[in-house]
Amino acid sequence: MKRQFPRISELRPLMQFGRPGLDRRAARLARAADIDDLRTLAQRRTPRPAFDYVDGAAGQELTARRTREAFASTEMLPRILHGTAAADLSTPIAGGTSALPFGIAPTGFTRFMHAEGEDGGAAAAAAAGIPFTLSTMGTRSLEQVAEVSDAVAMERHGSPGTRWFQLYLWKDRQRSLDLIERAAAAGFGTLMVTVDTPVAGNRLRDVRNGMTIPPRLGLKTVLDASHRPEWWFNFLTTDPLTFASLSTSAQDLQSIISSMFDPTLSIRDLEWIRSVWPGRLFVKGVLTAEDTRRSLDAGADGLVVSNHGGRQLDRAPVSLKALAEVRAEAGPDVEIILDSGILTGSDIVAALALGADFTLIGRAYLYGLMAGGRQGVERAIELLAEETRVAMMLMGAATVADLRREGRVRAPWL
């Protein structure tokens, strides 16, 4: 092999050194190649009780693991020489149009994960043109989220933001009605009633961490904080963590949830909600044909196939596997949203190809939030959107509707 000295004229074009940026958060997030990288960042920057609340699930966490295994077991069929120049990721859902085939799922205690909380999530969703769902157990009010959502959406798109409200039916029906009326007044066009939480799931990580809201500052907490000073600085220098619908005193999570949720919730209560809610109504937590029919007969406009991310009943059915049964019972015209376990764009594509009209992201969004506030959520959305686009292009799908053609995705349980 003949060697020679390198020529400076040939090396010069290869020597590209970017200017070091002052925004360290942006630089960290830019290096994240997928949601798992954001999860790693989140774990480094968030106290263990908060991280485990997001990352964990109920019992032995079997449902959470089986959910991920189900997504991993699907096969996507590439389509060669398909002549598709671009992929349009927009899709109609709940009477509007989302720029992407996923939205942000409702999550509780969100400012415990990062001081920006729902503000960061709602702003990122509005900027991306996708729905943001506020939880009954959120740490920002309906009115505050509406203000943030509309401000960003009007600036970016010239129209109000798309926002939905997730409702737990309280033991105090009047307080439930008050929330419903406030949601309608604040421009939340869709009500999502969660029905799989009559009591709190047995979340062992939270029990072992002694998680309370707000957190107690014991020796273990202080030692944990010493490795994550930014989180604690933000927590201690912003407004107190409060919940409009919950006690502000320090309680363990299971006690808070048990005092709020209603184990006597029945189909008659769903019918009552339908009678007082003027907008679209989705029922979240449907996994069987029987519950599909009961929900639709009670007046639901759409369904969310969800096992609560494996955080309620361990060994519950996997949402992705239950999707076919729910779709068969509901028929082709009922809008169905797939929730639980989505961490990649390929997961989103699989859900859409197997019968969902739309999807929701929970942990993926919170990993981004913990990694970098609103910027982190925007990065999570960006990563999932690009992964979805690439998968659609490789499968020859120009639109979300194209994904629903039979045979685009294979699943071993079908």
UniProtKB/TrEMBL annotation:
InterPro entries: Aldolase_TIM, Alpha-hydoxy_acid_DH_FMN, FMN-dep_DH, FMN_HAD, FMN_hydac_DH_AS. It comes from Citricoccus zhacaiensis. Belongs to the FMN-dependent alpha-hydroxy acid dehydrogenase family. The keyword Flavoprotein applies. It comes from the Bacteria. This is Alpha-hydroxy-acid oxidizing enzyme. Keywords: Flavoprotein, FMN, Oxidoreductase. Gene3D superfamilies: Aldolase class I (3.20.20.70). The keyword Oxidoreductase applies. Residues 27-413 form the FMN hydroxy acid dehydrogenase domain. Its cofactor is FMN.
